[in-house]
Amino acid sequence: MPIDEGLNIDLRFLILEVKKQARASASVVDKPSPAKIKKINVREHFIDNLKDTLESKCYFNIHREEEGQINHFRAIITIAVNLERCADFFISIANQMSHVKEPEEFLEFDIKRYYQVIYKAIDAIYPALSENNLELAQTICDYEQVFLNLISSAITRLFIKPSMPSIRLCLRIIWSWHRPSATTNRCWMITTMKQLL
Fold this sequence. Notes:
CATH superfamily: Phosphate transport system protein phou homolog 2, domain 2
CATH architecture: Up-down Bundle
CATH topology: Methane Monooxygenase Hydroxylase, Chain G, domain 1
Order of helices and strands: HHHHHHHHH
Largest sheet: none
Number of helices: 9
CATH class: Mainly Alpha
Structural class: mainly alpha
Radius of gyration: 18 Å
Number of domains: 1
């Protein structure tokens, strides 16, 4: 089902803003500064408002549409809520970086790899929804598994090298990327796409 033009614009803006937050978060991890951390926190309200606007429009449409189209609007709500949660994780990472005294300690973890996976997953969201592409939705879930494997590998390395002065902080940052609550919502994109079919 083609996305309604108003929802289409709002959803694309939300995806764009969350990707900007991801890039801003990567920049903070690379070179933390109070100005960067403040900037990423300021944009939180804009993302929250976009998510709320999308939800309101979807609920409005759910009450007007026929049964077959309701799942489409539910899918958009699920995507918007999960994107907003991702943006919150990026803010959490940025805020944790304000406590880092030696950011160069993160170089050996090649954090850019994590963000590359995130960017690919974010870029696949809109095409997966607009084309009702279940295979692309599965690809997003596969990216999640790649991401979890990177996290698992990083945690293992941290425990092998306990002499690292910032080990607790590293664990906190990694934990903010993947909290246990996220596992209950594993592969939300594939679930969302199945609702549409």
